[in-house]
Design goal:
The chain is α+β, with helices and mostly antiparallel strands. Helices cover about 45% and strands about 15% of the residues.
Length: about 350
């Protein structure tokens, strides 16, 4: 009971930690996409440079398709941004004081690529010279203000369409315009990154080989889904509960069977079935294992809920599947072992002449 209670407490903590990590997980790209960008002097990278690198990357990883995301600049190199509405100091030129979002230049197919489905409204908006927003909070009355940060920053206001249901990816621009709109506004376009959807998710080794083949001047990354880091620890705690239950039950049953050896011999002498002794051991295992695991799971759960309920760092997550596995799996294993290793026949304790 004590060991199972400790294991259950750890199961609760691990499950709650896993839930916290899952809630805090923020993908920088859509799940399953690869991004490729330049490391040295990214402002000098062209659209065609990225397209060539993306094609080479697809060859290295075994196929796929890609889109190119460019970045809009003012002539002379000043980059264009959209200021976060939560920033009140519009005159500051300190990027650390306010949150800015870069302006991307992309086609309608690139917006579809990011959203994961066709977005007709984005296609119409780009064709008519409007902006496309992934973050609805950046819209101001159906428009968006694109500026150059600083006291003398020029501001351009464009009608905007919001793409619904797209998370805020930290590795992507939140505002997009078409190449034609950028040219009409007199903005310079430079390559930002290529997004690749592989034919199948590459392994870690394949990504490492691809990164090495592309060279140090190219940055490449794959957005994988959230992966629990507690799986091995959860399995270890489940194994500990099984071992504790099996060991405790086996010792208790062995001692009880040793004490009842004379009774078992008497049963055998009066014609009891040979399997009677095995069934007797399995019945004792049911009692001992069920009591031990049941009390242990209950005690561990009470302690865990009381401990995690007062914590601001961990949400309380109940590992129902693991608890069910301990509650039912451990006794069943103990019963099976008792039935398997208990001899059906025992020698007579004494003979009657």
């Amino acid at each position: 009971m004590t060991v199972v209670a400790g294991a259950v407490l750890v199961l609760f903590v691990l499950s709650s930690t896993d839930l916290r990590d899952k809630r805090e997980f923020r993908a920088v790209l859509p799940i399953g996409l690869i991004n490729v960008s330049a490391v040295d002097d990214p402002g000098a990278v062209t659209h065609q440079n990225l397209a060539d690198t993306a094609t080479r990357t697809e060859d290295l990883i075994g196929g796929g398709r890609h889109v190119i995301i460019d970045e809009a600049h003012r002539p002379g190199g000043a980059f264009l941004v959209v200021q976060d509405p939560s920033c009140t100091d519009s005159a500051t030129d300190d990027l650390a004081a306010c949150q800015y979002h870069q302006v991307g230049v992309a086609s309608a197919s690139a917006i579809d690529f990011i959203a994961g489905h066709t977005v007709p409204s984005a296609r119409r908006a780009l064709a008519s010279g409007d902006a496309v927003l992934l973050d609805a909070s950046l819209a101001d009355g159906g428009s968006v203000d694109i500026t150059v940060p600083g006291p003398a920053g020029h501001q351009t206001r464009l009608p905007a369409v919001v793409v619904p249901g797209v998370p805020s990816y930290g590795g992507l621009a939140q505002v997009y315009v078409s190449e034609a709109t950028a040219a009409r506004q007199g903005w310079r376009v430079a390559g930002d990154q290529a997004l690749i959807k592989p034919a199948k998710l590459p392994s870690v080794d394949l990504m490492d080989r691809t990164r090495q083949a592309l060279g140090a001047n190219v940055s490449i990354g794959l957005q994988r889904p959230f992966h629990s880091r507690s799986s091995v620890a959860l399995l270890a705690m489940f194994g500990a509960a099984l071992i504790a239950t099996l060991a405790g039950t086996s010792i208790a049953v062995a001692l009880a069977m040793a004490e009842s050896r004379a009774d078992m011999a008497t049963f055998a002498a009066v014609g009891a079935s040979p399997v009677r002794r095995r069934l007797h051991a399995m019945g004792q295992a049911v009692t001992v294992a069920s009591l031990g695991t049941g009390l242990g799971v209950g005690l561990g759960a009470v302690v865990a809920v009381a401990t995690l309920g007062g914590s601001d760092l961990y949400p309380t997550s109940t590992p129902f599947r693991w608890l069910a596995a301990v509650l039912f799996g451990a006794p069943l294993l103990a019963i099976a072992v008792a039935g398997l290793f208990t001899r059906s026949r025992v020698p007579m304790t004494r003979r009657i002449a």
